[in-house]
Amino acid sequence: METWLTSLITKTPQEGFELAIKLSRMGVKYTQPSAEVRDKLRPAYAENADSLTMASHVVAVNFQTVAAANNYWR
Amino acid sequence: METWLTSLITKTPQEGFELAIKLSRMGVKYTQPSAEVRDKLRPAYAENADSLTMASHVVAVNFQTVAAANNYWR
Amino acid sequence: METWLTSLITKTPQEGFELAIKLSRMGVKYTQPSAEVRDKLRPAYAENADSLTMASHVVAVNFQTVAAANNYWR
Amino acid sequence: METWLTSLITKTPQEGFELAIKLSRMGVKYTQPSAEVRDKLRPAYAENADSLTMASHVVAVNFQTVAAANNYWR
Amino acid sequence: METWLTSLITKTPQEGFELAIKLSRMGVKYTQPSAEVRDKLRPAYAENADSLTMASHVVAVNFQTVAAANNYWR
Amino acid sequence: METWLTSLITKTPQEGFELAIKLSRMGVKYTQPSAEVRDKLRPAYAENADSLTMASHVVAVNFQTVAAANNYWR
Q: What is the pTM assigned to this prediction?
């Protein structure tokens, strides 16, 4: 896989949250490398409330990591 | 996306909890940007006990992050 | 919303556990503000083993936060 | 509720694990106070592999808290 | 229950991971003490992808605890 | 089992993420040692959005551990 993650440090909390989203998506991508398959799954998934909550949960876990790495941008 | 998160620091624990709720909702919004779709999903979701528990779980994870950032408002 | 959370500090671990329960319920309440709807959901939910385990899980996550805030009542 | 939790400190890791189990069960008990209902739910639950994994998950989260409280019994 | 956990310290990360697996299984065993029932559940469970992911999740949570106890074997 | 984990330290965050993926897969492998069975489960699993989110969740938990071990590569 190409280089996609060189640092957990971000300038702002929001960039950190967006990095958490990227980490969550990469966790999926390593399991399902086909962009075609992932795109096919997206519509049903993005219209299911529980699926969206599950996605937000993964982001929250990754955001814990990124926030700790940045000492909570204090 | 517009700027929506500039700090994890809040004045009180309750404001921290409410920030955790915002983070949880933004985790959904990044996956499903359409407010129309999200609004359509809400009624069924908000009347399903397990869906509500799942939502509360995500808030709890985000609240861990916000509470740590604020040194637990000690 | 009225003020409901002014501190994470409790006198005993048990009070801390009970605060974790309150946090878990407030996570639900922010998503479903209607007490009537929440009461309607309760019977089925409280008699489903997996729903109860899920609820206990959220309490466990919130208890981590409260326990850390209180330096584990050491 | 009667006093059931006065300290997170235990003599051994195993006692800590058993405290984590107690915390997990109390998380259920606060939601479903009826011992009769909980006993009725137990047979089906204890013979469902996913339900058992979910229970073990909650114990793991509570064990994190107890282990940290005891400085990992180092 | 017999003594099965006297320390969280292990010589290597791999032994720590294997201790995390033991902790995860003991979380199940305390809920379902019958080896016969657990063995009966295993085949279906071990051939269901989501059940396996759930099991790996519990191991990951316990591995966090064991790794912290060992100061990450640094 | 052969030696597969001698250190949690990695040179870069991306290698740390990839180690988290390995840990997640090993959590499955210890439960289902048969590569044949695991391969048989993969197609359906890799085309189910919720299964992929669950997998990404486990990676996120393990990444927390690896990131802490590496002091977040700061």
A: 0.98
